[in-house]
Design brief:
heterodimer; A: alpha/beta; Rossmann fold; B: alpha/beta; 2 domains; 10-stranded mixed beta sheet; 9 helices; about 25% helix
């Protein structure tokens, strides 16, 4: 098992958001976590990445059988956990290629792989950028600065392509995307999908799942999973809305 | 302090003015300036403009004044590695024709020492008119010792393709008073790079003035890089006067000095002009850096931008005092001003005071200042990509500085600054 979340309780600013969440994810699987606003979807994503504002009050998370919560955010990343941000952060003055090369080399150092100099890395980056149809002119630009919403999300998937995670959590990657950007991002994710990694799509809408087809759908309401099923569950949700599941959760 | 100042500089001044073969108008100007200095004395912290910057150490040091015979080869190898450009060299405040590269200038461009330019009407009409000697005691003292300076004149519609580098190198303990006068005639275009540097960690004084005149439609990119010795004192004033539709883009990088003060001033005298007065100060243990800026919107429809950033480490101190005056006739003014500071140590201190004074209703103005640590979300973003905490912090700090350094487009200088920032962070990126 790649990831096991057991009876997880998480608090932010004194408010309990996740209330006994259980989840199991294995390599080669695509999972969708769906739910209404405030159900705790993004909290789950951030806790997996190790955001310092979220406090785990109870439960555990095992990643490759080890205690994920014992690892710092950067250690998790180097171990292969990746979160695509809902709101990617702008870093003025730091170029995309410089940032990505540092991240790539940190991971290589950790895994005993070969670190790349700027020229070598540039070749790698050019190759990876094709995954999300990103123009090399973005490499020199400051990280996310002045990027449109769609460009920021593509940049997240480019980072995923470079860092090659084992567990990729995509937090509302579809939000704010027009139909073309949604297609490009989804195709990018599909290309990165393999038997070796798992992808977790955190989303409010079924729309994304037309492009990236999940093996499992989990419905989250009020801090816990209230229903699980295959991809057809997403369609049922689209039809009936979240209200019926909220009731079931209470 | 008056008495002290007088004893230190009296004799040097008498000697300097006595030997001088300068025209009467300049001798008179210098005498007036020295009288003004003698009467004023050095400022103290009781003076509002010098409240946070104590120059007692400058005032009490018995500096040698006047040209030294420093070894040019050392200077050449150390800091003059700028190739293929126009270079004006000053060593210990003395203009050095032998180290300068100003041959084969294009038609319509003058780059010459003051000594060779004193008969020029344009020089006479502008010298000490943009920055008047009574601006402060240091300006008075600089004006009193006006001997070494460079006069740069770009005539109508001439575009200078190469950057003009003016390098001020200090090699030993003395007081230096170099000046720059730049006049860009109508429609001219140029790039001026001033670099203050040193060949040793000496305790010298650089007291400098740069006057910039831009006639209608003239454009100037002006980079000023201050990399003095960390034991040195650097006191400088830059002021630009902008006529109609002219464009001035200044970037002031302040890295050196034990005590460093730069006044970056600007006056719009013609409508439709636009200016950037941006800067970065990066100081570490034992350094004090002070930027004062005054931007005067005296006429309609001019735009000014000011973005100053500071990074402070160790027991260091920075002062930012930026005034934007929108005078009553300056409707349609657009002015924005920002000063952001990053404190890397608990012992660092910054006093920031952005000020807007507006005497017209039809304006668009914004200003703000921040003092803080690196932002949590930015840190988390980098950590979540596998950068460890030190690396993430260094990268963010570097990025914070680069936003200003990136404005400098001369590759050799940009590279030096990148390295300086990384060295300061003890980082390899």
């Amino acid at each position: 098992m790649l990831l096991e979340v057991k009876d997880l309780y998480v608090e932010i600013d004194g408010q309990m958001i996740l209330k006994g969440l259980n989840l199991q994810i294995d390599r080669g699987e695509v999972h969708a976590i769906m739910g209404p606003n405030g159900s705790g979807k993004s909290t789950l994503a951030k806790v997996l990445a190790g955001h310092p504002s979220y406090e785990v009050k109870k439960g555990e998370i095992l990643y490759e059988g080890k205690d994920l919560l014992a690892l710092e955010p950067d250690e998790r990343a180097r171990e292969g956990v990746f979160m695509a941000f809902q709101y990617p952060v702008e870093i003025p003055g730091v170029s995309n290629s410089q940032f990505l090369r540092l991240a790539y080399n940190e991971k290589m150092k950790h895994c005993g792989g070969e670190e790349l100099d700027p020229l070598e890395f540039n070749d790698l980056l050019k190759e990876k950028a094709k995954t999300v149809e990103m123009d090399p002119s973005f490499f020199k630009r400051s990280v996310n600065e002045g990027f449109s919403g769609g460009e920021k999300k593509r940049n997240e998937i480019l980072q995923m392509a470079v860092l090659d995670p084992k567990l990729a959590v995509l937090d509302e990657t579809d939000s704010g995307l027009d139909i073309d950007a949604l297609r490009i991002v989804s195709e990018g994710v599909n290309k990165l999908k393999s038997d070796e990694n798992a992808i977790v799509l955190v989303t409010h809408y079924q729309r994304l799942l037309n492009y990236i087809v999940p093996d499992y759908v989990h419905v989250l309401a009020d801090g816990k999973i209230v229903k699980e099923g295959g991809k057809e569950l997403a369609l049922e949700l689209e039809e009936k809305g979240y209200d019926s599941f909220k009731a079931a959760g209470n | 302090m008056k008495a002290q100042a007088a004893t230190i500089f009296d004799e040097a001044f008498r000697e300097s003015i006595g030997d001088s073969a300068q025209p009467e108008w300049l001798v008179t100007l210098r005498r007036e300036a020295f009288a003004n200095f003698t009467q004023k004395g050095f400022p103290t912290t009781r003076d509002e403009e010098w409240k946070y910057t104590d120059v007692k150490a400058v005032a009490s040091k018995p500096f040698a004044v006047g040209g030294a015979n420093s070894e040019p080869s050392a200077v050449r190898s150390e800091r003059f590695a700028v190739t293929g450009e126009l270079i004006v060299a000053f060593v210990d405040g003395v203009f050095r024709r032998d180290l300068s590269v100003i041959d084969g200038l294009p038609d319509g461009v003058t780059i010459a020492s003051f000594a060779d330019s004193l008969d020029k009407e344009v020089l006479k009409a502008n010298l000490s008119k943009i920055v008047e000697y009574d601006f402060n005691a240091f300006t008075a003292l600089n004006t009193a010792f006006t001997e070494n300076g460079v006069f740069i004149h770009v005539t109508k519609n001439v575009r200078v393709d190469k950057e003009i580098h003016v390098i001020f190198a200090s090699t030993e303990e003395r007081a230096n008073f170099p000046r720059v006068l730049f006049v860009g005639d109508e429609g001219s275009e140029a790039e001026l790079v001033e670099v203050f540097t040193r060949t040793s960690e000496a305790r010298y004084l650089t007291n400098t003035v740069a006057e910039i005149v831009l006639e209608p439609n003239a454009r100037l990119k002006h980079s000023r890089v201050q990399r003095e010795s960390h034991k040195a004192f650097h006191i400088g004033v830059s002021k630009a006067r902008l006529s109609k539709d002219s464009v001035y883009d200044a970037t002031n990088i302040n890295l050196g000095g034990k005590i460093a003060r730069h006044d970056a001033n600007l006056e719009f005298t013609g409508e439709g002009a636009e200016a950037w007065v941006d800067g970065l100060y990066l100081v570490e243990d034992g350094q004090h850096t002070d930027t004062h800026s005054r931007i005067d919107h005296t006429v309609k429809n001019c735009v000014s931008h000011q973005n100053y950033k500071g990074i402070l480490d160790g027991k260091s101190r920075a002062v930012f005092n930026g005034k934007v005056f929108v005078h009553k006739d300056a409707s349609g003014t657009d002015a924005n001003q920002s000063n952001k500071n990053l404190l890397l140590s608990n012992d660092a201190r910054v006093d920031t005071k952005p000020q807007l004074e507006i005497y017209n209703d039809d304006v668009k103005c914004a200003h703000g200042a921040t003092v803080g640590q690196l932002e949590g979300e930015e840190m988390f973003y980098l950590l979540s990509r596998g950068l460890n905490e030190d690396l993430a912090r260094n990268l963010l700090t570097y990025g914070f500085a680069e936003e200003i350094i990136n404005k400098i487009t001369v590759p050799s200088i940009k590279k030096e600054l990148d390295e300086a920032v990384l060295n300061r962070l003890h980082a390899r990126l």
